[in-house]
Design brief:
By secondary structure, this protein is of the alpha/beta class. It has 19 helices and eight strands. It holds the Pfam family AAA_31.
């Protein structure tokens, strides 16, 4: 008789198929379903009877009348070799009736499945240790890595994330808030003065007692001085009486602003009687406001304006006036308006040192463009009366709104003011002005020479800082004042 193929041998005689021929478990299962229980047992014995991982060998032909090999292994004929009911086995979930056991996890089995039956699409996927059906296997048979949606395992340097399920964090909190308040640990501010500073420096920063109440108040005042300023803020220094320190006040206040703020600050000398503002800082140029107006058409950049000003150590710039009274008298209202219009394009704060004559031709331009006034008074009775008369004149000439935004300064206050009740004087100006500030007497300012903030007493610097903060509280209203129209002449 002609030799039959292996499939025919299995159907007729129950002889197991040679493993080298790429036997398919699904084919064996189909044969068992056709009614040959002995073939099913023989096939199960031929595939899974060996030890896992061992090289399978070809089975010899068996006698059709011989008992099935499954019986000798302790498995009843026709019984399934899968797991108990309700559990999933290697060949499929519960409820299915597999005809053969799952192929052992060996390289040879994987090779046979890949080469013989996987191409036909009827072979189940082998389940290797670590195999993930979602990730698949690489072309070399190696198990692919975990899918990208899995969170990393927490380790020494890895923190597992929540991926797309994490709630969106806002600017004030949440997982995405990277503000300094969320990331930095709270710590005490280093002290700036006193024994606290000495202890902090002496221990190399290891002992930090924190800032004192005075340091905290100073920091708050500096924050007020640095309030945002939109546009140009113009301040005019007024007094009907000379010798009260109006020019000195202009220099010290402007120096305080220039040293603490990053803005450009300039002081303009509008005193017609040979003003001395240019003598309060080192002189860098002999140019005056008259030269600036003459060359105004050629001024395009800040460096062009800088050629007509002098700058002190505090970064305060000064635009000097003419030293000849006959020439300075010709500095009119129109000239002042032209000067301020030019300067406000390059400077954020403009201080004007006015003369004692309120009827001067330039005074109307000064009052019309000013955002705030500083009414300077001395700590004497005549000084207080002159300052109060200045407010009366302003009220009578239509500048009541400017008076309400003004700040009164009582200058040169000594520790012992004699019989003058300065509290009563302060109450008088507080009822008419926005605020009242007292400046103590300082030997450095009494010299009348160039002013340096570092040479001032600590009490004087503290009072100037409070004055600057008080003036800066009105920065938010810059440009909000209703200007009086310019009448044609």
């Amino acid at each position: 008789m002609e030799p039959r193929d292996d499939a025919g041998a299995e159907r007729e005689g129950g002889r197991p198929r040679d493993p080298a021929a790429g036997a398919s478990p699904s084919e064996a299962a189909g044969t068992a379903g056709a009614g040959s229980s002995s073939a099913s047992a023989s096939s199960a014995s031929g595939v899974s009877g060996g030890a896992p991982g061992a090289e399978p060998v070809a089975s010899a032909p068996t006698d059709p009348g011989a008992p099935a090999s499954g019986a000798s292994s302790g498995v009843p004929s026709g019984a399934s070799s899968g797991p108990p009911s309700g559990q999933s086995g290697p060949s499929g979930p519960a409820g299915e009736a597999p005809g053969v056991a799952a192929p052992p996890d060996s390289p040879e089995t994987t090779r046979r499945v890949d080469t013989a039956e996987a191409a036909r699409g009827d072979a189940p996927q082998p389940r290797h240790p670590g195999f993930d059906p979602r990730g698949g296997a690489g072309p070399t048979g190696r198990v692919a890595g975990p899918p990208s949606d899995r969170a990393p395992v927490a380790g020494r340097f890895t923190t597992p994330g929540r991926g797309a399920s994490a709630p969106a964090g806002g600017p004030n909190g949440g997982p995405y808030d990277l503000s300094s308040a969320q990331l930095l640990r709270p710590s005490k501010r280093p002290p700036q003065t006193g024994w606290r500073r000495a202890l902090f420096v002496g221990t190399g920063g290891l002992v930090n007692p924190g800032e004192s109440q005075g340091d905290a108040e100073r920091r708050e005042l500096i924050a007020r001085v640095n309030q945002p300023l939109h546009g140009c803020y113009k301040i005019a220094m007024l007094s009907l009486k000379g010798g009260v320190g109006k020019t000195t006040m202009t220099t010290t206040l402007g120096s305080t602003f220039a040293s603490l703020r990053g803005d450009r600050v300039i002081a303009v000398d509008a005193n017609p009687d040979r003003g001395t503002l240019s003598q309060k800082i080192p002189l860098e140029t002999t140019a005056t406001v008259r030269h600036l107006l003459r060359d105004a058409d050629r001024v395009r950049r800040y460096s062009d304006v800088r050629a007509y000003t002098s700058q002190g150590p505090s970064r305060l710039e000064i635009l000097a006036s003419e030293q000849d009274p006959a020439v300075s008298e010709a500095f009119s209202e129109v000239d002042y308006r032209r000067t301020v219009t030019l300067l406000e394009h390059f400077y954020n704060v403009v201080l004007t040192d006015c003369g004692t004559g309120l009827m001067h031709s330039a005074m109307k331009g000064v009052l019309d463009v000013a955002d705030s006034l500083l009414i300077v008074s001395s700590a004497s009775i005549d000084g207080a009366r002159s300052a109060s008369a200045t407010l009366d004149w302003l009220d009578a000439h239509g500048y009541r709104d400017l008076v309400s935004r003004s700040v009164a300064v009582i200058n040169y206050v000594r520790r012992s003011s004699g019989n003058v009740d300065l509290d009563r004087v302060s109450d008088h100006f507080a009822a008419r002005c926005r605020a009242v500030v007292r400046l103590p007497f300082d030997p450095h300012l009494e010299e009348g020479a160039e002013i340096e903030l570092d040479k001032l007493a600590s009490r004087t610097r503290a009072a100037l800082l409070e004055l600057a903060a008080t003036v800066a509280d009105d920065f938010g209203r810059a440009g909000s004042r209703v200007r009086r129209p310019v009448l044609p002449r």
